[in-house]
Every structure is written in C-alpha cells, then in structure tokens.
Amino acid sequence: MAMNLASSGRTWRRSRRAPMAEINVTPFVDVMLVLLIIFMVTAPLLASGVPVELPESRANPIDQTPDQVTISIDSTGTIYVDDKRVPAGALPEALAAIDRGADGQGPVIVLRGDRGLAYGRVMAVMGELNRAGFNSISLVTNSSVSPP
C-alpha cells in the first residue's frame, strides 16, 4: 500500500504543468478600449453646456488654455458664466467673483454669443468685461469653409 501511494505521487508531479511566465493582457486591452470610446463620446459634451448657435468665421483656431472662463450669451440674451446663469444686472458681481490668480492678470475670457443676437448686446457684455479689467477676450465662432 505504501508503494502504491508513492507511485501515485510521482505521476502527479510528472503531469503537473509548468507555470506560465507571460501575462495575459487581452482583458486589460479590452477594458482600455471601452474606456477610450466612452471618453471620446463624452468629451465633446463637456466642452460647454449652453446651447448657442455661433456665427461663422474664416479665422484660424486658437489654442485653448486651462485658465479660461467661458461667458455665453444665448439667443434670448441670457448670460452664462461657465454654465451658471447670471441674473439680469448681476454681470459685474459675477465678473468680480472670478479669480484673477497670483499675477493679477486673470484668466482668458472666451466669449460665445449667439448668431441671432443684436450687436449691441454682445458689445455691452464686452464693455462690462473691459470695465472689470479683463482685456484678453477671445470670441468663439464656427469655422467657415467658403468665403463670404
């Protein structure tokens, strides 16, 4: 009986597989591709939440910087500062609440105005920006393929 146990132990050791020295990365790649697709789909939705129909322009696009504040004016003339609605007449207070940073220059202001707005409404907002001390203002438009 002892001999029988010893022989069964040897056959178990011989049939034992060698450990794998490779890592299976297929599940990792699958998960990363799914996450990449999710981020590619949701990233454009995070850019701005205020629906504005932008005018067209043939100007070259500018680089976006992380220290910018987006001010949007929708078709009804309502003003939004970074997707937060500003009550009528409260734009100077909203601009005063913007952090100017350590150098005092302040962030770049990105102004998005609806195409159907009166020119005077957009200029009134730009005047308030100038009065608040923001001199670096970028106007956002859609790119136009054909010349006007």
SSE pattern, N- to C-terminal: HHEEEEHEHEE
Low-confidence stretches: none
| Gap from first CA to last CA | 99 Å
The gross shape turns out to be: elongated
Strand order in the largest sheet: 4-3-2-5-6
What is Rg? 30 Å
Strand tally, please? 7
By secondary-structure content and strand pairing, the structural class works out as alpha/beta
- Please give the count of helices: 4
Q: What percent of residues are in strands?
A: 15-25%
Q: Compute the average pLDDT.
A: 78
The profile of the biggest β sheet is:
5 strands, mixed
**Could you estimate the helical fraction of the residues in percent?**
25-40%
Short description, anyone?
Helices cover 36% and strands 17% of the residues. The chain is α/β, with parallel strands linked by helices and 148 residues long.
